[in-house]
Specification:
CATH architecture: 3-Layer(aba) Sandwich
Strand content: 15-25%
Structural class: alpha/beta
Bound molecules: adenosine-5'-triphosphate, nicotinate mononucleotide
Number of domains: 1
Distance between the termini: 34 Å
Number of helices: 8
CATH topology: Rossmann fold
Low-confidence stretches: none
Shape: globular
Number of strands: 6
Mean pLDDT: 96
Largest sheet: 6 strands, parallel
CATH superfamily: HUPs
Strand order of the largest sheet: 3-2-1-4-5-6
Order of helices and strands: EHEHEHEHHEHEHH
Radius of gyration: 17 Å
């Protein structure tokens, strides 16, 4: 099995004199939606990334207060959603790792997998960045990867930035990017499915069909 994700496992080796840039789009993806996909695409474009690895969290510990779908369903939906984009791939490393999922562990693994000419860019919405001071190993994160905080409707980027700087021992910079505002959330999609409303155009059609075929989201969070 590929160590990170097959498509980008040998990134950096082709031309050791060139710098490569790899994005990491971390999330629970329960389910993945156009907000995630469009965010990854806009960051890839703006930062000239060679690719983006979608990284479904195995056990997202900050979501223990609510129902989270099985990792294999979330992985399968993410794979369907990115299948038509040659710059995207999905990694199993977090869902194959036992225990609660910590980004610091993932970034350590990725940093040791890739040669030094591959720079890592962890992509995150303003809501996730605003919690970063409480992430495991927060002070180490900025040394392992660049962090790109993107705007998200309803969340403050100023607060996200303050929390990010608070989490860093040294003042690593946070790259900020204003992206097209899509007020879409997985929570809204789950609610719509439960209420029998359409989610067409909010997530790719293969994901809509997967949710229907597997009867996901019958119950409240
Ligand atoms: N519409 C959006 N615009 C920008 N970023 C987003 C958007 N939706 C999610 N993100 C970012 O994508 C990452 C993964 O998000 P996640 O999988 O938790 O989705 P979510 O829609 O926030 O889910 P939920 O509603 O279940 O909490 C986070 O960094 C989050 O900030
Ligand atoms: O490492 C941590 O402690 C940590 C705590 C909360 C969230 N994260 C990561 O942040 C990303 C977005 O998380 P979420 O919960 O908004 O889907 C995802 O990759 C999570 O694994 C990481």
């Amino acid at each position: 099995m590929a160590a990170i994700c097959e498509r980008f496992d040998t990134l950096g080796l082709e031309d050791p004199s060139r710098t490569y840039r790899l994005g990491i789009m971390g999330g629970t993806f329960d389910p993945i939606h156009m907000g995630h996909l469009s965010c990854a695409e806009e960051v890839a474009d703006a930062f000239h990334l060679d690719g983006v690895v979608f990284m479904p969290a195995g056990d997202p510990w900050m979501k223990h207060n609510r129902r989270v779908s099985g990792a294999e369903d979330r992985f399968a939906m993410t794979r369907l959603a990115v299948a038509d984009n040659p710059k995207f791939c999905v990694s199993r490393i977090e869902i194959d790792r036992a225990g609660e999922t910590y980004t610091v562990d993932t970034l350590r693994i990725m940093r040791s997998h890739y040669p030094d000419n591959v720079e890592l860019y962890f992509i995150s919405g303003a809501d996730a960045i605003a919690n970063i001071a409480s992430w495991r190993g927060a002070a180490e994160l900025g040394a392992l990867a660049h962090f790109v905080g993107v705007t998200r409707p309803g969340y403050s980027m100023d607060r996200a930035r303050e929390e990010y700087l608070r989490s860093q021992e040294d003042l690593f910079d946070l790259h900020q990017l204003e992206i097209t505002a899509l007020a879409i959330s997985s929570t809204d999609l789950r609610t719509k499915v439960r209420n029998g409303q359409s989610i067409r155009y909010l997530t790719p059609q293969p994901v809509v069909e997967y949710i229907q075929e597997h009867g996901l989201y019958p119950l409240e969070d």
